[in-house]
Each structure stands twice: as C-alpha cells, then as structure tokens.
C-alpha cells in the first residue's frame, strides 16, 4: 500500500511544482516487504490542454531516483547517495541549475524555454521550504520501550555496555497477532535516551529498524533464508556489525565510540544467554 500526502502546489507560470510525501509499506507479490518513504517533487506543465508530469524526483530512503517524463519517455535514473549526499538537497540543486535542460531531455521543449523565467527561480525558494517542511512533518517514525519502560516490564532486562545499552524484552502485539523477542540498542544523545536500533524478532512480520526515531529504515526478514531472526541478530552482533549498523542509523559519533571488546564479552556471557532464556520462557 502506498500513502501519498500532497502538501503543497507552487504555481510558476507555465510550470508548477507539487510536493508530496510518499509512504510505501513495500508489500510484494512474493510475500516479502521493502518499505520506502520520502519526499517526491513533481514538475508539472500544460501540454495540449492537459496537466502533465514532466519530471519527478523521488527522494526516498532506500532507492532515491528521478524520472524524465514519467508520462512519456519514462527514463529513470538512480541518485547515488554516496556522491550526491542528501537526495532532497541534491534534487533541489538540480531544479535550480538544470531545470530547462532536464525538461528538454524529457521531451518538453516549449516548457524548457519557459523554465528560464526569473520568476521560476524565485519560486524554487518556496518549493525548497515546502519540501523540507514536508520531510520533517510526515516522516514515519516509531518509539519503542526505553530503559525506564523496560524496568517496569516483568522479565525484561537492560544491559549496560559502555556508551550503549541493550534492552531485552518479549513483546506481545495482539493487534497484529504477533509476538516474539525484541532487542533495543539504546544510547544517550544530548541528555536524552535514544533508540538507535530495534530488532523485532516476531513470529510474524519480523523486522528491524535503523534509527526508529530518526530515519526509521525498516528491513523485513525473509524467513525462507532467515528462519530464526533472533539467532541472525545475535550472530551479526558477534561478527562485529553493530558499529556499522549504528552508523547506518545516523549516529556515527556513537558508533565510533562503541567498545567492541566489552560488547563481545557481554554478548557471550549476558546478552545472548539472557535473550535466549527470555524467549524460551515465553514460547
């Protein structure tokens, strides 16, 4: 299912810009899921008396891209986040510097000529403001239990590991008929506890989050190749992937300070045994 929130339409003479927030649950025909979300910037123009989508920049988390002539040539180009940086900022930059050329390549030469109008350049300030406000307002995030909440849950535990801590709990979600072990990786940011990573190893729709309260990039487990998500998570920790995952969640300074030796010791002696014991007691 795709949910689109249209938040602004900015008219600029022959051209208009539409700002939307797109939230996709990522369900596929094969039963897997790959959620996606982000701002979509659309460049519209009147062609033969009808409003046509000439360019679209989908500034998504996983696979950001832009499309020349979605209703015509439909040429899709990937945005490389490594070289482009923030996809939304990059897209705004292209609208400011290459809009006429991009419209021409999309097959709209008349609109390309109109795009040189100075009024359009001024309107792009409104487009950028609307797009950035949309990105902040509509981003889907999730908040799980922190240390204080876990302390009140029978059977849950919090294990300190230097600049991070691990929260272990067995979660019951009757509203979606799912249950299973959850591991929260927590730390303090500006005096406030923040969940860096969350691993929901449920019996149904098991998944994990990078930056639940920040980016909230979700990955669903393919139970065909990963029949035991909890075991998979613990194995990734033991392989030393934790700092990389924390960095991917958007917390590079915390990732750099993780005491991997301490984490390895705690995994063997506390985290893994306790997580498996809590699960065994509940199933």
SSE blueprint:
Layout: E1 2-12, E2 15-24, E3 36-47, E4 50-60, E5 65-68, E6 75-78, H1 81-84, H2 87-106, H3 109-114, H4 118-138, H5 147-151, E7 157-161, E8 164-173, E9 178-189, E10 192-202, E11 207-210, E12 217-220, H6 229-238, H7 242-248, H8 252-256, H9 260-282
Antiparallel strand pairs: 1-2, 2-3, 3-4, 4-5, 5-6, 7-8, 8-9, 9-10, 10-11, 11-12
Helix pairs in contact: 2-4, 6-9
Q: What spatial form do the alpha-carbon principal axes imply?
A: elongated
- Mean pLDDT metric: 90
Q: Which percent range describes the beta-strand content?
A: 25-35%
Number of domains: 2
- Tally the helices: 9
Notes on the structure:
By secondary structure, this protein is of the alpha+beta class. The protein has two domains: 2-138; 147-282, no CATH class. The chain has nine helices and twelve strands. It has helices at residues 81-84, 87-106, 109-114, 118-138, 147-151, 229-238, 242-248, 252-256, 260-282, and strands at residues 2-12, 15-24, 36-47, 50-60, 65-68, 75-78, 157-161, 164-173, 178-189, 192-202, 207-210, 217-220. Helix 2 packs across helix 4 (118-138). The two termini are 32 Å apart.
Summarize the structure.
This protein has helices at 81-84, 87-106, 109-114, 118-138, 147-151, 229-238, 242-248, 252-256, 260-282; strands at 2-12, 15-24, 36-47, 50-60, 65-68, 75-78, 157-161, 164-173, 178-189, 192-202, 207-210, 217-220.
Identify the notable features of this structure and list them briefly.
283 residues; alpha+beta; 2 domains; six-stranded antiparallel β-sheet
């Amino acid at each position: 299912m795709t949910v689109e929130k249209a938040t602004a339409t900015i008219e600029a003479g022959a051209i208009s810009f539409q700002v939307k927030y797109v939230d996709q649950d990522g369900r596929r025909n094969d039963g897997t899921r790959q959620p996606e979300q982000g701002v979509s910037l659309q460049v519209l123009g009147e062609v033969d008396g009808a409003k046509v989508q000439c360019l679209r920049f989908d500034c998504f988390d996983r696979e950001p891209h832009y499309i020349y002539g979605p209703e015509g040539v439909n040429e899709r180009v990937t945005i490389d986040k490594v070289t482009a940086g923030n996809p939304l900022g990059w897209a705004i930059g292209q609208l400011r510097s290459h809009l006429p050329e991009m419209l021409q390549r999309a097959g709209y030469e008349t609109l390309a000529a109109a795009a040189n109008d100075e009024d359009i350049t001024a309107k792009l300030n409104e487009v950028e403001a609307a797009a950035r406000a949309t990105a902040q307002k509509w981003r889907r995030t999730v908040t799980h239990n922190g240390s204080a909440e876990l302390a009140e849950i029978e059977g849950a535990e919090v294990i300190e590991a230097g600049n991070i801590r691990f929260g272990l709990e067995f979660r019951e979600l009757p509203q979606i008929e799912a249950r299973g072990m959850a591991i929260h990786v927590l730390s303090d940011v500006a005096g406030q506890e923040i969940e860096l990573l969350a691993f929901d190893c449920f019996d149904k729709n098991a998944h994990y989050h990078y930056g639940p309260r920040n980016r909230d990039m979700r990955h669903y487990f393919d139970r065909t190749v990963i029949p035991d998500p909890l075991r998979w998570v613990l194995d990734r920790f033991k392989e030393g992937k934790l700092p990389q995952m924390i960095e991917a969640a958007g917390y590079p300074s915390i990732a750099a300070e993780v005491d991997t030796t301490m984490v390895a010791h705690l995994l063997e002696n506390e985290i893994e045994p306790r997580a498996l014991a809590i699960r065994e007691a509940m199933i």
